[in-house]
Amino acid sequence: MPPRASQPAGSNGKPVKKAKASTKSKATTVKLDAAPSNSQRINPLTAFANTPPSSGKNGIPKASQQSQKSKGKEKEIFKSLVTDAEDDRLWVDIYEPTTEAELAVHVKKVQDVRRWLDEALVGGPSGKLRKYRRILALTGPAGTAKTATMRVLARELDCEILEWRNAMGESSSNPFEDDCRPDGSSYHQSYDSDQESLFSKFEAFLTRASTCQTIFADTERDTRLSSSQSSSSTHPTTRKQQIILLEDLPNILHANTQSRFHAALQGLVTSPSLNPVPIVVIVSDAGVRGEASDERLASGSWGKDRDGVLDIRTVLSKDLLHGPYVTQIGFNPIAPTLMKKALQALVSTHFSSSRAKGSAPSKEILDIIIETSNGDIRSAIMALQFSCVVEMPGSKARKMSSGSSTKQVLEAVTRREQSLHLFHLIGRVLYNKRKGDPPNPSATAKDIQRDKDLDATLKDPPKLPSYLSSHARRRSRVNVDLLYADSPIDSSLFSLYIHQNYSQFCNEVEECEGVADWLSWVDSSGGESWYQANPHRFHLLTMGTLHSLPTPVPRRSQKLFKPEFFDYLTKEKDAWDAVRDVRGWIIEDATSKEKEGWRLGGWSRAEVVTGLGGVLKARDVKQMQPQAPMSHRLFSSLTFVSGGESRGLRQLSEGDLPSDNVDLPGDDGCPRGGWSDIPDEQEGGGWLESDDIEDF
Amino acid sequence: MSLWVDKFRPRALDDLHYHEGLSARLKSLAASGDFPHMLFYGPSGAGKKTRITCTLRQLFGPGVEKLKIDQRVFLSPSKRKIEVNIVQSNFHLEITPSEAGNYDRVVIQELLKEIAQTQQVDLNAKQRFKGAAIHSPLERFCECIVDWTVVIINEADSLSRDAQAALRRTMEKYMSNMRIILCANSTSRLIAPIKSRCLLMRVAAPSDDEMQTVLTYVARRAYFDLPPEAAQEIIKDSGGNLRKAILVLEALKMQSPDLSGPLTIAKPDWETYCQKVAVLIVTEQTPARVMEIRTKFYELLSHCIPPTVILKTIAEAVVSQVDETLKAEIMHWAAFYEVRMRIGSKKIYHLEAWVVKVMSLYKQSFYQFDISEFS
């Protein structure tokens, strides 16, 4: 859809419009007043820096007013404006939800957000929660209506959203902007502000956005309080509450900026403010791909810079994230039923209006769109619009039986880089489905059909000679390359998941043997140094596992668990601390007293662990003085519990993101270069800072 | 707090109870006032460190026992801080580079270069040394000629290859003002160039009789009599590890002060645990059992028991319970997976792979046996 020349630039769909808004910001200094809607985007820098001219709306050039209007999300206003002109904006913008009912988000999520906002703005039922409702972090995959929910709720709660945008286009090198400024005085001001770095602007935005509001609201509150208690109920605040929305963040991946950003937020949150402005941070999940860490290893970069991924942990500092001021609400991909409802509503509104051209898309197309969108409603609406604009190959000519070709086209259009859910990834490997497997009893007809289609595309492998017959398998339905491309985790974590779960899927020890050997081989393959790690580990492990597992895998309601590995690592770390304590206790004065034996090299850690158990136990029993540090039990006392009940196994569920549970403590980065008796790459020698092992 | 092991440790070469030949050699070496780089190797608990200490004392006199502990911070290439404890006297300095994990190369390089390039100019130290009562002419002799520092590197066999390569160069270059004493369990993990640059000193494990002598000596020093049966019991349990034997003796003495009657030697928990895991392996061979054993392994590992030790202990326990024909196989695979474990990063995989292998071997042999009996 190329923009028509006659159309004002502002109505060319969202992105362009935004850019325009920010470049034009100097001309539109009075947005606060002029805005028809309360959820508009403003440039607070200029908005606050320049006092609005008294002329108000009249001061605005006509064109910009038009663009102002078109920014509003209220359909009614919009429709009345543009009904006659053909609207070539995206449907995503036109039909942005305006009420809670229109949101395709699960009701509970919306409630969560609403409650938070309520608590943040008013303080909840007790009125005391306000202090702790400073930052709300909305996370979730792209296109799950995070921003839309925020806007709708802001509208319903009648508050104003102050949004930060990284205005890259706003530079002093734009003479036209300067020319059309109404007064010359603010020219310098803005010129100065252009000299600041982008981040300083951001800081200024944060402080201004929070403090300016504070002043007004405070005075208001004071008057209210001083007048009488009853008046507050009868006469609610005339000025709107405000919310700071941070979606377009400064470049957090730059370490320096990140620390400044953290500091800014921290400062804002801890500052004692009577009437704080809640901050909403929206972060879309960006999945880590399977190869990420492998490639990093191959390219030889040091250690684990997970900073490469923008997630909630990089956006908010650890203290903040675990502190009382931050609430995190995760959005899930939009459920097909909800999406269907939303899309249907959209289609019916669209085609009932006079603007509609062509015919409504068929139900099949709608279904395909929903299926291919993977819960991303933005991409679904895009696809829907596309399907109405473009003549689908099968939409009219061959009404039925065209499912697959339509699907292909749509898939090509809507398919976005998406990662498989961890749960599905592990399941796909461990269930080891092969061509011709009997369908699952719970499978729907559609699933069965899909399996059949898939089987039809798979060729049978050539027959193996008799001496290799033990390796004969039917063709696997798993496409390893695709799996690798879609994997949300790197191969090391993947191997941990396989390791934790494979044994349930085996019937006999012989099958376990295959998987275990592959795990072992893959872990040690390559060279002795970490940078020689095998780049094909993911493939090898997947194929090895598929080859070794029985086929078909018996269904006995296996449960997938998260790896215990990380619990063990934390425990081990504590135990090593205990070892150090005991070691210190032993050699405490050995070096100072000369007649006590000087023991060369002290006690090595391995010696303490393996040798001292008996003595320590005996001392404990007899309560000998001086007493050994009690922590020694962490490594010296081991009681054998028969039965395989392992405590604290956490089940992996469908919604789990890989980032929820674990971060690899860099074990990929540092397998031992040589030989060691002690597994000390994870702990001990004081060279591993605690923050390397992030919260599991 | 001193354990008996530390308290009653021989301090001079003359006090050592066994390996007289070695002691004589070391003494004559010390008498010459100079020595080459040395590598002490032998099983743990054989007395390597004791012998190194005695040699140093012979060489430098009691001044070598005035120690201070320094904590040094090194920077890795990725600007990570590595803290290493260094014990040093005026004459020597000892480090355990394996404390630095992967970055042992940095530590070795930085530290040795620094020592080597600093000549012994600490006149003060010499003054102090002079002021102290000097007993033997030998000590006076040493004081005049010794202008090098001894560096003792503990756990040299856990040095990475990088570190060993770095060491090799340093050994050649700074021979004039530094002597290196390496202490290792086995020479097999050291690269050949290092071995060839060192005078090799093998410290073998003591024989049973020698251990008996030492235990009796320790008992006498601790003012009690050790019944020979108890000593035999302890020796049998310790498997040539004198340190372990003395620790057990101390524990036993604490538990039952009279040391008479039947003794139950208190093994460390992890050993009993490993025995039980071995039983688990032999009694059932199913995927469920694999999972159960995995939790046990995690438990052992989280108690910091070195995985190599786990593998070795369990393998020995399993071998003692299986048929003769399987023993070689099981040990073969233990060795096989031990190598992988050293190279790989996640020890649990290799431990488990070995267990599963043993299980399937055992199961197969068991079924074959059954069938043959049946027919």
> What global shape of chain A is seen?
flat
Computed structural class of chain A: mainly alpha
Tally of alpha and pi helices of chain A: 31
- Determine the strand fraction of chain A and express it as a percent band: under 5%
Mean pLDDT of chain A: 66
What does this protein look like?
The complex is a heterodimer of chains A (696) and B (375). Chain A has 696 residues and is mainly α. Chain A is built from 31 helices and five strands. The N terminus and C terminus of chain A are likely disordered. Chain B has a seven-stranded mixed beta sheet, sandwiched between helices. In chain B, a hairpin with a 3-residue loop joins β3 and β4. In chain B, α12 crosses α14, α14 packs antiparallel against α15 and α15 packs antiparallel against α16. Chain B is globular, with a radius of gyration of 24 Å. At the A-B interface, α24, α25, α27, α28 and α29 of A face α1, α3, β3, α7 and α11 of B. Chain B: It comes from Mycena venus. Chain B: It holds the Pfam family RFC_C. Chain B: One of its GO terms (biological process) is DNA strand elongation involved in DNA replication. Chain B: Its main location: nucleus.
Describe the structure in brief:
Chain A has helices at 14-23, 31-34, 44-49, 62-71, 75-82, 91-94, 107-121, 146-156, 175-179, 185-195, 198-227, 229-234, 255-270, 292-299, 312-315, 318-322, 336-352, 363-373, 377-389, 403-414, 422-431, 445-457, 480-486, 491-501, 509-524, 537-548, 565-587, 605-611, 613-622, 633-636, 658-661, and strands at 135-140, 159-164, 241-246, 279-284, 326-330. With 696 residues, chain A is mainly alpha-helical. In chain A, helix 18 packs antiparallel against helix 19 (377-389) and helix 25 runs antiparallel to helix 26 (537-548).
